[in-house]
Structure prediction request, 288 residues.
Amino acid sequence: MLAVVRCLEAWRHFLKGAIEKFEIWTNHKNLEYFMKVEKLNRRQTRWALYLSHFNFTLKHVPGSKMGKADSLSRKLDWEVGVEKDNEDETLVKPEWLEVRRIETVEIIVDEVDLLEEVRKSKVKDDKVVKAVKEMKKARVKMLRDEKWKEVESIMYKKEKVYVPKDNKLRAEIIRLYHDMPVGGHRGQWKIVELVTRNFWWPGVTKEVKWYIEEYNACQQNKNCTEQLVGKLMPNSILEKPWMHISVDFITKLPLAQGYDLILVVVNRLTKIVHFIPTIEKMSAEGLA
Prediction:
């Protein structure tokens, strides 16, 4: 049916308003479904409204008897025996992702040589200090199945640059991923995902969260996700005493004359208070 609608749209300047009824030949037997009374969906309703502008009849002709029309629907480059030419193919090649990853880093850290700043910083976390000592002791550049490795005086953990224990440097990295136009001032988890594509340090998630919570522009422009509170409704004015009372307990008292708890009943209007001795094991039914 979609093909019929598109055909009428393409030839509407010849067919719309035609006095004589024209025929539409189709080899789709299922179009007879539309010739019966059915409950149409929204798309089919739009089609029916558009088809009502034309004076035509649908004629079913088997495909074996529609050689000319069937040949026009064939692709020019169609060949026999090429049904499996798409097997064992990779849609996105790994080298494409690597190139894109490098381009992203260059955009975000524009005019800032972060690797040089990381190389200059000497203050490291305890885990990294321990890993460096083990590498020096074993005289290797890699530890624990490539978990830690050192390249040109820069530590890498799982192929991510370790940022030393420098608060200013870490804040600068978060700023470059969050504040720059390409960063888009995104939320906490998106910034964490962007930062950890290339960098890592202990507590990176918490530091990103603190940075975003303290950033004024984000807090001023973010959408409020809390439900709006209702209007302030004043309490009704009491007309006589003991219409409204409040009840509370004073617990954990030393035992005195068999009681260890005091029930406090306050009249809301006159503020008269009654102190009633009782025990903590008293049930709701007994208290009533």
